[in-house]
Amino acid sequence: MPRRRAIVFDLDGTLVDSLPDIVGAFRDAFDACGLPAPPEAEVRGRVGLPLEEMYAAFAPRASVPRLAAAYRELYPTRYTRSSRPFPGVGDVLARLRGRGFALAVATTKRSDMARRFVAAMGLQDALDVVQGTDGFPHKPAPDVVLRALAALDADGAWMVGDTVHDIEAGRAAGLSTYAVTWGTHDAAMLATARPDRLEANLDALLEAVAG
After folding, report:
1. If DSSP states are collapsed to H, E and C, what string results for the chain?
2. Are strands 16-17 and 84-85 parallel, antiparallel or unpaired?
3. How many CB atoms sit inside 10 A of residue 14's CB?
4. Distance between CA 211 and CA 168 in Å, rounded?
5. What residues act catalytically?
6. How confident is the model at residue 1, as a pLDDT?
7. Residue 81 near residue 21 (C-beta atoms within 8 A)
8. Low pLDDT (below 50) residues in the chain
9. Cis check: omega of the bond before 76, within 30 degrees of 0
10. Is the N or C terminus of the chain more exposed, i.e. has fewer CB atoms within 10 Å?
């Protein structure tokens, strides 16, 4: 029997419009630690990297563990404040599943937080696997994508993401790549990663997977 084909999605900025809650908690951690917060625009451009790496770009390395701990206390208190699935996401996922695709999330979030977040966004029944980054190399390394595919026991078809790191991870895992411009990185930056498709939304994914 042929193995199922899988589509792997990034989470924040790809399926869910969550950047305001992430950036807000990230900046509030500076206040909690008595440090000046960086500009919102500079933080936004780094979303999708590991938390400690994000903080290291804006604070002395000795302060990074304290800032990360503050974020991990703050974010769960506000992650549903404004975060919502992007328009049409639920419909696209349902139509892909109806075509027989296995569906996974591969995110830089830790797995426990990612699963709580997916459930809060009402997407848990639309996805087969939610794989976070738990103590192994993060995107653009392909590890989280490959782990998601292994959990699905499926062959990878497409990686869908909103950052250069997502596209590079998908390519490294041997998948075709689909970049959406409504998240962290704009179209010009995403184009530098040479995705197979560069689109303003997920609608064209339905066409792309049929090719």
Report:
1. CCCCEEEEECCECCCEECHHHHHHHHHHHHHHCCCCCCCHHHHHCCECECHHHHHHCCCCHHHHHHHHHHHHHHHHHCCCCCCEECCCHHHHHHHHHHCCCEEEEECCCCHHHHHHHHHHCCCHHHCCEEECCCCCCCCCCCHHHHHHHHHHCCEEEEEEECCHHHHHHHHHCCCEEEEECCCCCCHHHHHCCCCCEEECCCHHHHHHCCC
2. antiparallel
3. 27
4. 21
5. 10, 12
6. 57
7. yes
8. none
9. no
10. N
And the tokens for 93?
């996922």
Question: Do residues 209 and 158 make contact, with C-beta atoms less than 8 angstroms apart?
Answer: yes
- The confidence score (pLDDT) of residue 210 equals 84
Look at the chain and count its residues.
211
What pLDDT score was predicted for residue 74? 96
Angle at which helix 64-74 crosses helix 19-32, to 10 degrees, equals 130
Burial state string for 109-119 with b = 16 or more CB within 10 A and e = fewer than 16: bbbeebbbbbe
pTM summary value: 0.93
Do the Cβ atoms of 176 and 161 come closer than 8 Å?
no
Q: Specify whether the CB–CB gap between 99 and 93 falls below 8 A.
A: no
